[in-house]
């Protein structure tokens, strides 16, 4: 069994520069590509934020959906608002992945800024959780939306080639490319890695 977990930052800054609209369009593009390519997986999409001083608000807005039956995400499902408890959201996502009987998993994390609000999970513990995923050959990808996420992803143990920063208008390109890599991982177990050319294309304005 296979599954994809997409974790989308819905912090207030995602509203700037069209990041939110581009991100949800990109997620729809990703799942459509999976469907077109016949990738045998399920997709779960969760969004996260928190009010100042509050605990994580983690909402699953698409749960274990077969790509061919995906209903496109829109602003009606969620909108940007609070802060960025990224570590806590990672812990929640990893727990969901580990609860399933999955052979292959892709965890795709889309954010536009630094962790700033977690209450339960430290960066060190979030890294340990993701290290356990990577040890199982589960794929962990960090995508920065108008955000150079290299240092953040490195703190969480991610390889440079599994981390990419994208200009917001190019997120659909990035997610379509990611879905193509996901298809190869589904068939052969090949690592999902971005080339230098992919990274340059993602940054073009």
Question: What do these coordinates show?
Answer:
With 205 residues, this protein is an alpha/beta fold. The chain has one domain: 3-Layer(aba) Sandwich (Rossmann fold). The chain is built from six helices and six strands, in the order βαββαβαβαβαα. It has helices at 19-36, 86-99, 123-135, 150-155, 171-188, 196-203, and strands at residues 2-9, 42-49, 57-65, 104-111, 139-145, 163-166. Strands 3-2-1-4-5-6 form a six-stranded mixed β-sheet, sandwiched between helices. β2 and β3 form a beta hairpin. α1 (19-36) runs parallel beside α5 (171-188) and α2 packs parallel to α3 (123-135). The longest helix is centred in the first third of the chain and has 18 residues, at 19-36. The radius of gyration is 15 Å and the shape is globular. The protein starts with a strand and ends with a helix. The model has no long low-confidence stretch (mean pLDDT 97).
Key phrases:
205 residues, alpha/beta, Rossmann fold, 38% helix
In the sheet with the most strands, the strands line up as: 3-2-1-4-5-6
CATH superfamily: von Willebrand factor, type A domain
Instruction: Determine the oligomeric state from the structure.
Output: single chain
* Structural domains: how many: 1
**Biggest beta sheet attributes:** 6 strands, mixed
Percent of sequence in beta strands: 15-25%
Query: What is the CATH class designation?
Result: Alpha Beta
* CATH topology value: Rossmann fold
CATH architecture: 3-Layer(aba) Sandwich
Q: Could you say which overall geometry the principal axes of the C-alpha atoms support?
A: globular
